[in-house]
Amino acid sequence: PNTLHQRMSEIVPNRLSDIRIIRTKYGKGNLGNVTVDMAYGGMRGIVGLIWEVSLLDPEKGITLRTHSLPELLPRLPRGRRGSEPMPEGMLWLLLTGEVPTKEEALGLSAELAKRGVVEPWIEDVLDQCPKTLHPMTQLSYAVNACQHSSKFAKAYASGVPKDTYWQYYFEDCLDLIAKLPLIAARIYRNVTRAEGAPPVGRGLSVDVSLDWSGNFARMMGFESDEFDDMLRLFLTIHCDHEGGNVSAHTCHVVSSALADPYLSFAACMNGLAGPLHGLANQECLLFIVKMREELGDNASNDQVEAYVRAIIKSGQVIPGYGHAVLRKTDPRYTCQKEWAEMHLPDDPLLKLVGQLFEVVPRVLAEGGKVKNPWPNVDAASGVLLNHYGLKETNYYTVLFGVSRALGVLSGTLWARICGLPIERPKSLTSEEVVRLFGPE
Ligand code: CMX
What fold characterizes domain 280-387? Predict the structure, then answer.
């Protein structure tokens, strides 16, 4: 079958010619006005980026290369084991715009397994991290260290022509995606080891007969087929959420200075580690567990509502609810909730997830301050992980990050294919705002 690189090499020239035509025809099109409030307000609503691989609709949720999640999930190829789609298929789709055949996805899976090696000194660096160093910090640290073997950085330094950059960038992206399960599993094993036990040391390696998720699960120490399938689903659906969110945008802006994929993705992970973004999945499970401790297993909706109101009154946010762009229930929440209802219907935490869904949107909608009262991707994911024994909440964002590599590296690779220039929006001072709009 086609390798991903062959298919990309066929697609790239056609797509570049399409983009040239689009720019000639519509280059002067106006994408909207920017107000002073938008500049102070986190740039909400300002269209200022091209991100080829996904688009977020406020009502319908994410479309990945024009496919909505509910439409896409049944169509993505399954591997030799399990019944959930392989994230490798999602990677193929994001990069090429085409749903791969099963053979193509399996070929990519085998290629990633072959590339899944990490320099031993980086393993040693991770083994020397204190157990208490946050797993996201360790992930960012290790990804930065992998920059040592960047093919793009080396090619750039040797002066290769600009229109070949993407080829080296592509190599780095696949290498990095292939290394992530090994890095992330080592972090998991190290942070969860018993007090006084030695770090992982040598002996953690990718099994070429397993897929990307199966390898990740096995290296973390999980053995069940159901866990593998849950991980496949998790890694498939967390991959991308268009270009303006903190993690994707960070990857994009850092890479626009021609920093290689390792440096760009490490920066992206630092953004994902913020509590208003990826860290919310950790915060969300902690919130649900604490609520259960206080209310017990038979709480009424009225009790849940009183608990939620008290949290909001104390000035905290309800993790897992709200979104900067979405205005309806996140389809990524829905598919995780459906999985949970099928596989862990009696989990007491799942019951609380359901009760929160009945209570929180109504409470948040009161007063009209919160623009989106509905659940986002993080509202249910922790309950799944916890159910299968992955209880270390401070690790959850690492899983989000491993999945996010598929989307942000695809989007960023396409930015390099298109030769987008270094990013440099204009900023103003408050004095300048007054000078522009104020009285003499
Ligand atoms: N609980 C309580 N208050 C909330 C809220 C929530 N879940 N969501 C929004 N609000 C508040 C905001 O804090 C803000 O209050 P102030 O004006 O007092 O600062 C007000 O409502 C308006 O916010 P908004 O315009 O609706 O939302 P933003 O675009 O500013 O922020 C987000 C979006 C996601 C940061 C916010 O909804 C939030 O903090 N949610 C909880 C954290 C979370 O789940 N994050 C994960 C998002 C998905 C992801 O990136 O992984």
Answer: Cytochrome p450-Terp; domain 2 (1.10.230)
